[in-house]
Structure prediction request, 806 residues.
Amino acid sequence: MNANKPRIVVLGAGYAGMMTTKRLTQKFGAEEAEIVLVNKHNYHYQTTWLHEVAAGTINPNQARVMIKDVINPNRVRLIYDSVVKVNKEEKQVVLENSELSYDYLVISLGFETNTFGIKGMEENAFFIQDIDSCRYIYEHIEYQFAKYNNDPEADEDSLNILVGGGGFTGVEFVGELAEKIPELCKKYDVERSKARIINVEAAPSIMPGFDKELVAYAKSSLQSRGVEFREGAAIKECTEDAFIVGDDNEEIKAGTIVWTGGVKGSPVLAESGFEITKGKVTVDGDLRAPGEEDIFIIGDCAWVMNEAEGRPFPPTAQAAIQHADTCANNLYALLNNQPLEKFVFDDKGTVASLGITDAMGTVFDRKLYGKTAAAMKKVVDNRYVFMLGGPKLFLKKGKIRPF
Amino acid sequence: MNANKPRIVVLGAGYAGMMTTKRLTQKFGAEEAEIVLVNKHNYHYQTTWLHEVAAGTINPNQARVMIKDVINPNRVRLIYDSVVKVNKEEKQVVLENSELSYDYLVISLGFETNTFGIKGMEENAFFIQDIDSCRYIYEHIEYQFAKYNNDPEADEDSLNILVGGGGFTGVEFVGELAEKIPELCKKYDVERSKARIINVEAAPSIMPGFDKELVAYAKSSLQSRGVEFREGAAIKECTEDAFIVGDDNEEIKAGTIVWTGGVKGSPVLAESGFEITKGKVTVDGDLRAPGEEDIFIIGDCAWVMNEAEGRPFPPTAQAAIQHADTCANNLYALLNNQPLEKFVFDDKGTVASLGITDAMGTVFDRKLYGKTAAAMKKVVDNRYVFMLGGPKLFLKKGKIRPF
Prediction:
């Protein structure tokens, strides 16, 4: 390490970490700062596309990018390893296979699934969490179909897919399943009616907090394509092949059970002694951890308060990418003794996909439905691919699938 | 039923049954004979392509054809049901859901896997038997890869594929696996060396009876692509996750076990009181069952003697298709009081595929290797597609994959 050159270490190459790293390489000359990016895998993936990988509607490789294809490894030191904890006092990160000191640290380690202690969920449900877990989900689903006509033990329940949680991910996931399951039925000579897609949500309605008109649209679109909703249905337990639901302990059986009902920030946060609120760290307006001069926490590890409304900004990919801009700006300011800026979320709207040709959401305060919304969703997806890797990456990994 | 119009019933729509039915519609006018084709599924499949379905190198749908797309249902009565037995005395076929009388009968019910009583094989191994069983095999293989990085119980052995039997099917299957496994390793981030493909053959060499020079070529080609051969290795037992092999009871572990070591004719033959020799019925020279005036047995249900050599002709797809010609000719002769002809096998040669760009075999007594043989193999495959359904079917189901 060059004693005169400060070392900035970014932990995690999700939306927040990747874009921070990219912005840092644009802001700093090679002689001004050493940049290190630590990530578990040698690839970055599109978290907001994971439900498509899990439903088998896109190829897993389309949803990921080799880090070295978009970050110049001559400019940024890339370390592929898992983070164990941060020793703030020693300004050191403990990795599984080594240790690493830092001058400035960006923690962007993303989320883990939160089962809220529901009995059996951790053991028996699949999670939409990363590329590995999602292609495992898809293969598990297809395997149930392949088994059905061959294994005397396979019954119709084994074709059912139970999705716990009717939030954004749960609803987008059943939307993709509504596309894929008819295909699998055809491929494996199974009647469509034998494979049920069941979404279970504890709140009185799916997508709590979302515009009611849009939610009604989403529901009727998905129901018309064979998705069943069980709203106001709290899951009391997840067994090997069922949810136990509601006060009368109804058993809903399925061969594939996926939990999408909650997330929490990386466990490294608690391990490193940060104060945790609902699974994440509430950061200062400039995105630094409270009381820390040189540690930023961004993306799904952070709650960033919307002071006007007295509650956190929504933890979305859009927000994570905007965190990256502020974080890179503030690192530049810190190293140059300039004042730091405050994060302000620029809400461009939200579109939820409901399958290949349908979606719904709000963009610039306008409600969108159907094909228009689906087209807009693709624009949003592709915009990030462009930001990350330009037209070259767009041609390789963009969503160009036909309507 | 028109009392004056004889009813010809064909049981089974494999190579032999399909081509017999097709030839019958060409030979007989609609007023001359009623033709009935009975088959378990509403589709016909390419038995000689099943190893490719099992390895995932072709789409299962490419290997099958809807029967009504190649046989006119206004001309031939199509019954989709399983055959239970034939009552020769009553000239009646018992199906799972009905009964059916016949004047003339063609039994072309194909083969079943023969495990020769090897302990545990029936319960624990997959069989290359039909479309259902083969896509199940492929999904099982891919599922092991999807599991590997997710399930703490999955170890490297679970990625191994054990193939019992080094005959034609076993060797062609490992050839396809040698193409597919590297793809799966890449897709699921697994080192190629962790997934072994192991072929186990009891005889001193794989492909017993085949030209030694060609066998040596096949072995070295496959070994160079990572296939391991265990020759002279008798399988004593198949457990849930291993073969127990040889006198020292060596255990070879795998997550996927496929048995390709033998076939026998349909169990309907024995159920119906025909005399069985090594799993099949030895038919007369005109392809009729011994002592039966009106029952033909063809394809993999029959042994047809090569009287010049004093042993049966090899039971291949090529032979089954030729049986169909003789069988249709003889049915026409029978109904018109003409003399029946004797079956003579016209051996056009045999090519074994060793992957996508490699094969070996003899064609018109010339030995072929490599790309030339692979091209010839495709010609053979496509020739049948043409015979069955003309250029229209070729465009839909022909093998047009690029080299």
About this structure: Residues 7-40+81-113+263-347 of chain B form a domain with the FAD/NAD(P)-binding domain fold (CATH 3.50.50.100). The mean pLDDT of chain B is 93. Chain B has two domains: 7-40+81-113+263-347, 116-261+349-403.
